[in-house]
Amino acid sequence: MKAFEKNIRKVEPYVPGEQPQERVIKLNTNENPYPPAPGVTKALEEMDAGNLRLYPDPTAEVLVNALADFYHVNPDQVFVGVGSDDVLSMCFLTFFNSEKPIYFPDVTYSFYKVWADLYRIPYECQALDENFRIVKEDYYPENGGVIFPNPNAPTGIYLELDQVEDIIAHNQDVIVIVDEAYVDFAGRSAMELIDRYDNLIVVQTFSKARSMAGMRVGYAISNPALIKYLNDAKYSFNSYTMNQTSLVCGARAVEDRVYFEEGIRKIIETREWAKKELADLGFEFTDSKANFIFAKHPKYEAKDLFEFLKTQKIYVRFWGSRRIEQYLRITVGTREEMEALFAAVRKYIEEQS
Ligand SMILES: *Cc1c(COP(=O)(O)O)cnc(C)c1O
Q: Which of the listed CATH numbers 3.90.1150.10, 3.30.420.10, 3.40.50.970, 3.40.30.10 matches domain 3-34+258-352?
């Protein structure tokens, strides 16, 4: 072994869902099946490549202001980044510096563990109960910070806001991050608690409900003090995280509330219909409030079904990790995509019997 090896920061990276380059029915990474708001297309058409010679606005003002307007907060309560992964990673770096472990659920977004390892933050996973629900009391002991998604991923289960508030209220000596990647499909956001708890950060993304995963835009809403700490860390890292194109397109997307709400309505409608179809096919699943369904079939191995679907050019997500070995996570696509999925599942079931 080379002497320098011992000083290398070695990490086991997060493994993203596959992004096949051939045409498939893609239900594996919770992207939105519908295009972004029409204003985004227009902004791209009107864009002048000549402007790319300039650095983008480091304060990301157009996007920050658009988000502040949309959520009725002040611009100094908004932090933006390159997808919420960037925002969350920056939050870990900025706020989780205690010697005590941070807490997050055992079945959750697997990136939390990766950032904790990367930044050498001690952590402890709190087990979800047998119905995959967060047990709020598990977050009462003294800790170095708390993070959980709401709805949780990959379970899709939405924790009612009074329970979210209870966790925040019991952790006022540390920062609590609520990762709301899917909240637009679910219910009330913890954003309404921002003024009451100075330890709360709410993180959201353009990747799911706003159909812009390819643009990489995420944001945090909090009080001005915590947002300032985030910006200080960002400026110490890379002043220009957000490129000009994302700033403009992001702002255009936020301005179109009608399109946004209609898109969410369609996904929820398809999700609830898909649950009925899955039940008819014998699947068991959590009551997901997100844009995916977390399902298992009592008769078939998740891995086998996953592999079979792939041969049919239908991609869903499978981990095979502890507690969720038999589960598949199926993104809610268009009605047509879901029909194709169910046809393929029927074919699989017929072949097995
Ligand atoms: C998708 C997702 C994110 C990250 O999304 P970005 O594309 O980086 O904005 C963060 N948290 C959870 C729980 C997610 O599912």
A: 3.90.1150.10
